[in-house]
Amino acid sequence: MSEDAARTGTAVYGCTLGAAEEPDSLLLPGHDVPLGRYTTVRRLLPHRERRMVGAWCFADHFGPDDVAERPGMQIAPHPHTGLQTVTWLVAGEIVHADSLGSLQPIVPGALNLMTSGHGISHSEQSPPDHPPVMHGLQLWIALPDEARHQPPRFEHHADLPTVRDGAATVTVVVGELAGARSPARVHSPLLGAEVSFDGPGTLRLPVDPAFETGVLVLSGTATIAGTELAPGALLHLGRGRSDVTVEAAAPARLFLLGGTPFEEPLVMWWNFVGRTHEEIVRARDDWEAGDRFGTVAHCTDAPLPAPALPTVRLKARGRTGETR
């Protein structure tokens, strides 16, 4: 790898301080995953070549799907630990219900942010009279060690800050961008923003040079930092940038992820984010026993059973996929 094609950062591996080369940009193709009985998503994170973007550790893009004659999203109660969930819609409606007693519909332009802490359960279901198209994102944020044992909470933000620049409208979902700050409460330096072009345009977005950045296209096509991008992949951009240039030749919609590198190794299995194999086993046992995660009172569907654990120990991995 040439010096022009890589940026060098400093990382700690065990007790050794060394230099780790990171690519300036990396295109990460997604893959299709069935979610429940009626929904298929394109999973963009984690990816074998780059598991995270900052603390963003999971990204599913679903739709646009014609659900006029179908039930839409129907995900029965299930548990989470060690993470925050971000639900963002481009089209459609989903009703969130959780074990705190929350019952909150979400529509395009609003944010549902659920913080699992030490444990929560929830369901995500389209209402019977849902709109004919469903399209959006489901994202996870890994909680740092000091936050992951806290009590769970839920936030709904219907009025997020926006910035208009030519043909582009930027909605700041998480963090701060271009002088606008989201009210969403997160636990590490993060950015999440939707960029929507209503026609041809070029937009230069300021980013923190300490952040790594990911960009995905929800609809249309765009050129980001010189790379053409269409729905179905995520472009990872390395640290050291002060801005990211986005060009669209026609209407397009993108989502920007960013954050400082998350250096705590994670064990991710099913709906749990932990640090050790033993933590995941305890979380699964608690869910199967009906402990810790509460009951989703506003949903009558039976809770999802936990899948069987693999026959080998689950290993903690760093943000680039290395085993710790």
UniProtKB/TrEMBL annotation:
Signal peptide: none annotated. CDD domains: cupin_pirin_C (cd02247). InterPro entries: Pirin (IPR012093), Pirin_C_dom (IPR008778), Pirin_N_dom (IPR003829), RmlC-like_jellyroll (IPR014710), RmlC_Cupin_sf (IPR011051). It comes from the Bacteria. It holds the Pfam family Pirin_C. GO terms for molecular function: metal ion binding. Its cofactor is Fe cation. Residues 196-293 form the Pirin C-terminal domain. The keyword Metal-binding applies. Keywords: Iron, Metal-binding. Residues 41-141 form the Pirin N-terminal domain. Binds 1 Fe cation per subunit. Fe cation binds at H78, H80, H122, E124. The keyword Iron-sulfur does not apply. Belongs to the pirin family. This is Pirin family protein. It comes from Streptomyces chumphonensis.
